[in-house]
Amino acid sequence: MKLLVTGGAGFIGSAVVRLAIARGHEVVNVDALTYAACLDNVADAAKAPGYAFEQVDIRDRAALDRVFAAHKPDAVMHLAAESHVDRSIDGPSDFIETNITGTFNMLEAARAYWEGAGKPEDFRFHHISTDEVFGSLPADPSVQFTETTPYDPRSPYSASKAASDHLVRAWHETYGLPVVLTNCSNNYGPYHFPEKLVPVIILNALAGKPLPIYGDGSNVRDWLFVEDHADALLLVVQKGELGRSYNIGGENERSNLELVKTLCGILDRLQPKDNGSYADQITFVTDRPGHDARYAIDPARIRKELGWRPSVTIEEGLEKTVRWFLDNEPWWRKLQSRQGVGQRLGTGGGK
Ligand SMILES: NC(=O)c1ccc[n+]([C@@H]2O[C@H](COP(=O)([O-])OP(=O)(O)OC[C@H]3O[C@@H](n4cnc5c(N)ncnc54)[C@H](O)[C@@H]3O)[C@@H](O)[C@H]2O)c1
């Protein structure tokens, strides 16, 4: 299959590109190369004859039309987005422009291409979204997000992703565009950009810096290993039912404090400190405004209908991740000098 992957130089997009190339697909990687991008993430995949890169901003409709005409993809996997909640609190406009207007442009460019090609039945537009569109859950473990949970986004980031999900469904209902959607939980793994919680904790721990925990650390997330996510996405784009959405979770609910303590335990084992535990560096900081209490995915649909389950437990996935960061210092060192990385963002103070 020839896949047009947007955001393929980002964290999850690059995992999709690497896996797709490894499985023999062709890939057209469309990415504007924002602060969050790193082409090193796909350096090996880029050597494959079936790989092409287009530095294109999804806000540029004419450029997207050119990419579709030049590459004639069989399917689109749309991951390009502004993705950091804290940045969306300080400066929401990029989130509106890329996540909403950019998705609108992608839908219109894909529709023009699909209609121009005689509406091939097997064309797919796969929109990759987040569980954050569903809002915040109570602590009760029997309550989880299903595909029919009403949308209730509460941050500029999740509101922009919710808007994009609605556009994708509307383009299916109104124009018949063959779409599939996925909403997944928090990812972690190799090549995770060093402003997100898991890499921040690993890298601050190694640098002897405080390990910042927002609020009291009780916020619960369902953690998904990025390579498992990429595997689920390739399954959905090929086998997902038209117009349907699938929730993807790691079956690994943890509070932020539990997650950080697990990471400290792994680091204590793999790279022990001279004295004490990395957990001694844990520091509680002011909470994020509007911090959602709990996200939890009910993955029954993707399990029953497509037979997909995550391959690793959180302990296994976190250990792979810590080992990867220990082995790839040049990768993360380079990214630490990028704008905003290493600073506390999203306290509501604005830009
Ligand atoms: N990271 C998570 O835990 C998570 C969870 C659920 C869903 N998602 C969704 O998965 C997708 C990928 O997330 P990620 O964590 O890999 O993000 P990321 O921030 O690591 O990467 C985003 C990529 O998109 C590119 N991009 C941004 N704006 C663009 C534009 N205007 N035009 C073209 N390219 C642009 C960036 O250059 C970057 O390479 C997003 O749609 C996000 O909403 C992420």
From TrEMBL:
Per UniProt, residues of the NAD(P)-binding domain are 4-321
Q: Which cofactor does it need?
A: NAD(+)
Write out the entry's keywords from A to Z.
Answer: Lyase, NAD
List the catalytic activities from the record: dTDP-alpha-D-glucose = dTDP-4-dehydro-6-deoxy-alpha-D-glucose + H2O
Query: Quick check: keyword tRNA processing in the entry?
Result: no
SUPFAM superfamilies attached to this UniProt entry = NAD(P)-binding Rossmann-fold domains
* NCBIfam families in the record: dTDP_gluc_dehyt (TIGR01181)
Q: What is this protein called?
A: dTDP-glucose 4,6-dehydratase
Q: Which organism is it from?
A: Psychromarinibacter halotolerans
